[in-house]
Amino acid sequence: MGYGVVGIGAQIAYKFEILQPDTLRAVQFYWAQLGLSVTNQLFKLAVWSGSSSGPGGGPVYQKFNQTPNYVDSINGFYTYLTDPIALSAGTWFFGFIQNNSVILNLGLDVNTPAVPSRKFINTTGSWVNSQLPGMWMIRPVVSSTPIDVGISEPIDGNQISIFPVPASTQLHIQTAFENPEEFYVELLDLTGRSLIEQQGANSVLDTHDISSGIYFVRIVHSLSGNSYSRKVVISGN
């Protein structure tokens, strides 16, 4: 599913609570490819400070001339690196400002109950909460040290073993990655809903409560947002 606002200068801001001082290194977005591609449409990535009532004033940071980028995997996030931004403990907002009136189709997770108090839009000069179902697929990347995303290349599926297939009570994921701790693993159903999430590329997923059927294992590099998905079968449950 996708979400968008209409209007030159329209803004979307997603609220996060930063519990301790940290440094923003990137912001990740999932863009839903619905109909015609909008990868030629420009927007400004934006960061605001504020309070529970919304962003306060103008952005504290903007990155100009960005475009939506589609990642060829289920719920694949694209990573936009930022300048290092010192985030104090408190309320922060991450989102974008449109350059034109084309709807960009930000990913919308309709399987997660909506929390309108986290979703703010501004199309008329003032901030209001979005009341539509679901949650936006935006996430900041914070780290006390610079992140090294390396060359933006797809994850090599030849370095990944997933067994047994079909699986019953356990699904094993083994990789030859140099830094497996930088990845996390998800089990997704055919709608893209995440059923299991586990840190580390080398994982054992407990599937004894998962109904028989076809699913996807998705392996994501936490820093770059690069991901790889593979279809699996679970049977006997």
Note down, in words, how this protein is organized.
The protein is mainly beta. The protein has 2 domains: 2-142, Jelly Rolls; 157-234, Immunoglobulin-like (Sandwich). It contains no helices and 20 strands. It has strands at residues 2-3, 11-18, 22-29, 43-51, 54-55, 61-66, 78-87, 90-98, 106-109, 119-122, 128-129, 135-136, 138-142, 160-163, 170-175, 183-188, 194-199, 203-206, 213-221, 227-234. Strands 2, 4, 5, 6, 8, 10 and 11 form a 7-stranded antiparallel beta sheet that branches. The radius of gyration is 19 Å and the shape is globular. The two termini are 30 Å apart.
Key descriptive features of the protein:
4-stranded antiparallel beta sheet; 237 residues; mainly beta; 2 domains; 20 strands; Immunoglobulin-like; 7-stranded antiparallel beta sheet; Jelly Rolls
Q: Which structural class best describes the helix and strand composition?
A: mainly beta
Low-confidence stretches: none
Gross morphology is globular
Supply Rg: 19 Å
Helix content: under 10%
The total domain count is 2
| CATH topology (fold) name of the largest domain | Jelly Rolls
CATH class of the largest domain: Mainly Beta
Summarize the main sheet.
7 strands, antiparallel
Distance between the termini: 30 Å
Q: Which series of helices and strands comes N to C? A: EEEEEEEEEEEEEEEEEEEE
> On the 0-100 scale, what is the average pLDDT?
89
Number of helical runs?
Answer: 0
Number of strands: 20
Amount of beta strand: over 45%
CATH architecture of the largest domain: Sandwich
